Amino acid sequence: MVEMVSRPYASAFEKFAAGNPDILCLSADLTSSCEIDGFRDRHPEQFVSMGMAEQNMMSFAGGLGLAGFRPFIHTFGVFMYRRPYDQLMASIAYPRRKVRLMGFLPGVTTPGGMTHQSIEDISVMRSIPNMTILETGDATEVESICEAADSIDGPVWCRVLRGSVPRLFDTPIKVGEMRELSSGDDVLVVTSGICTEEAMRARSALKEAGLSIRHLHLHTIKPFDAKALLDHIGSVKHGVITLENHVTEGGIGSLVAETMADAGVGKRLIRLGLKDTYAHGGSRPYLMRYYGLDALALVRGTEELMGQSFGISEDDLDDARIDDVHSLVKAEAL
Amino acid sequence: MKNEKTTEEIALGIRRRVFEHSMRNNGGYLSQACSAGEQLAWLYNEALNLGQPTLPMIPKPFEGVPSPDNPDYHTGAGYNGPASPDYDRLFIAPAHYALVAYATLIEVGRMAPEGLEMFNKDGSSVEMIGAEHSPGMEVHNGTLGIGLSTAAGLAYGRKLRGDTGKTWVFMSDGEVQEGQTWEAVQACAFHNVEVKAIMDVNDQQCDGAMDSVMEVGDIRTKFINFGAHCVEVDGHDLDAIRQASEEKHEGKPLIILARTNPFHAMSILEERFPRLHYVRFKSEDERARMNVSIAKDLGVDPVDYAH
Questions:
Q1: Where are the domain boundaries for CATH 3.40.50.970 in chain A?
Q2: Which residues form the Transketolase-like pyrimidine-binding domain (chain A) (predicted)?
């Protein structure tokens, strides 16, 4: 049974930031929702409430960066790039301010529907010069995201998980590297964020079906080590499958496709994720099933790649976690 | 760094330089020199406490954008001196005033006249819309409305650091149409950020007179209601500007609304009202007439732009 960690960001951020006068904690009226309410209460001198005014917050953070501070901005990811995109570009990304953009509720991890779900943020951030992109996939990565982000000489976009988060890894994020979770030689599976746990659920069933899966987890999306990926692609016989909590255009599916095309790799690639569609509001398991982001979707993708059915059904997959939607670890519904 | 000239002389010098440049190049941001001449002259000659320039009098060419591969990158802020705790900082929020701002740098001895010859030339850092690597600039403000927020963040940070230097913003009134301006004012009021702004209220914007594009109403009352200390003065009356800048604004941003005339000291520009944002001469005849008229207003000979 996988260990579940309650609110790993809350304690990790406080441990990392408290007492460091160069780090300021900015919030846009989502303080408890981003698990920084305790920090606010215990370290008010490092907390700056910016209200529901993201455009000003982004440029203000740029000004703080100019003054030598390293602001950690906390809000839902979607609110940090859609409305204030111009400010993100001009005040933070262009001048390489050391602003750490802690984006909560990545992809379909919120029941909030279209307005709350950042489904194209990686695509947007990948196309912004000077931007670094990190994504957390488990509690250990959430616990190490602050240190990883703050090691970057420039702005950093982080997809942060909140609430009850599974612990899948025992080593912190090492920026620029990728995790090799299994080293098979039939099919390469590349995942990030919450989709990595899904791919792990499918692994034993695929193994029983006789498939040897090589599984990579990406926490660093930009900059990206293309050579390492190409070595892994060279190690499998049949092709590559990507699975992401994001639209397949511009995310890690595109990243892998571009890497393969640039190197002239002639293997097949199947990109799983949101297929040119918005999502709607609902629970995470429901949305992941409905939009094909879960373990079963990966199995079907693998069957498509191999051109055969393995007869794997939901019952053959490792147990899914059943989150208590009314659990205390969730600050509120949204 | 003290200048030998009076602020009035500098304002006149700014207009003369922008006029000459616009004549030679068949157009330019003439009206902004009319409205903002006194404000920029006053900022640089009296208000700002700035150190000696740290960058060469003749600007270097464009040396690339900020990137990890460009370690020697620097902004154009060095023309305002070093960013020391005790010195003031200035942002030119409407970056299309760059021509006027460059002329100001020349008039106060911070840039060589050759700098203006580089204006809007390919490969030059003296860009038409001031970039952060352009002389006197420290951030990109070409997208209107972000300047006050950036200055507010810097001022807040400097307050935490205990800096004694002030943070100034030169603004334009069109920016009050942007929601971000009001977000910035409410944030300054909430966090007691004592940033200082002087706004060129010339009632003009790109499409024409502001009232014909988007009415903004009584902006002084709006600024006060959002939590600023706001005073309104005649933007061509230097004593009034001086007096306004002395206003106490404890725990609040200071916004000086400098009401100005967009054809001040170049009366013939009124012919072009209400399209004053960028004056490009429509005919050789117009260019010639404006040359003679404005030269007379400014007390100089017409520009021999044919050579």
A1: 4-166
A2: 3-167
Q: Please give the pLDDT value at position B307.
A: 73
Residues of B in contact with A94 (CB under 8 A): 65-66, 132, 140
Residues of A in contact with B88 (CB under 8 A): none
SS3 B22: helix
A179-316: CATH, from 1.25.40.20, 3.30.2350.10, 1.10.10.10, 3.40.50.920: 3.40.50.920
Q: Which SS3 state, helix, strand or coil, does residue B254 take? A: strand
Domains of chain B by start residue, with CATH? 7-298 (3.40.50.970)
Interface residue ranges in chain B relative to chain A, Cβ cutoff 8 Å: 65-68, 75, 132, 138-143, 145-146, 149-158, 160-161, 179-180, 183-184, 186-187, 190-191
Mutate to test the interface with B, among A24, A27, A58, A66 (most CBs of B within 10 A): A66
Q: List Cα–Cα distances, B63 to B71, B75, B80, in angstroms.
A: 11, 10, 19
Closest CA to B98 of B133, B67, B61, B126: B126
**ipTM of the predicted assembly exceeds 0.90:** yes
Q: Which CATH superfamily is domain A4-166 in?
A: Thiamin diphosphate (ThDP)-binding fold, Pyr/PP domains (3.40.50.970)
Percentage of residues in chain A having pLDDT higher than 90: 94
Task: Classify the phi-psi angles of B267: left when phi > 0, otherwise alpha if psi is within -120 to 50, otherwise beta.
Answer: alpha
**A102-151 tens-digit pLDDT:** 999 999 999 999 999 999 999 999 999 999 999 999 999 999 999 999 99
